[in-house]
Predict the structure of Putative N-acetylmannosamine-6-phosphate 2-epimerase.
Amino acid sequence: MSSVLERLRGGLVVSCQANPGSPLRDPHIISRLALAAQQGGAAGLRIQGFADVQAVRAVTDLPLIGLTKTDRDDTPVYITPTAAEAAQLAELGSEIVAFDATLQPRPESVQAIVQAIHAAGALAMADISTLDEARAAYDAGADIVGTTLAGYTPHSRALSTADWPLMDELREAGLPFIAEGRLNSPQDAAEAVRRGAHSVVVGSAITRPDVITTWFAGAVRDAH
């Protein structure tokens, strides 16, 4: 694997994202979250959107996994759905570009997006939801796959926890993977490593206080 993936091996990647409407939805604030994650020991960062990638790239040399989220009427694929978006993320300084590689109707093929990412000098991270999608992504030239979309497609397991069975399947098939999705505690992150993850991405549980507050507020409310 490349030197960038080697830098991430066995490490924590922190996803610094904020949804529209969040008080944190500002590139400068995202860059501060990224620096806080770096100070805490993050090996890399996962960043959404061109402006945020630019802002974070300006303040850190940690490896960046860049992506876009684009809602389209013609496809359920929304994580970096086009080769043009993927190439721009690479040009802005993302060493790795993440994109949806699920087996859903899509505007452009997985292979076309991988080729665009490689042509722009970056590595391709295929966000998948099943073992078959992981195999197909590697066949199309992806450098690494992530379990990011497990549970978010109609044909994957609907779980309230991380998709541990998928991680086991990937390990047993000899397919390297980055664990991501519903990893909400240090114990979850460690378990992903024990199940064979190359590295672990955690977002909401670290960088989204609005989401974390709903967890605590719900628990307190339920206790009454």
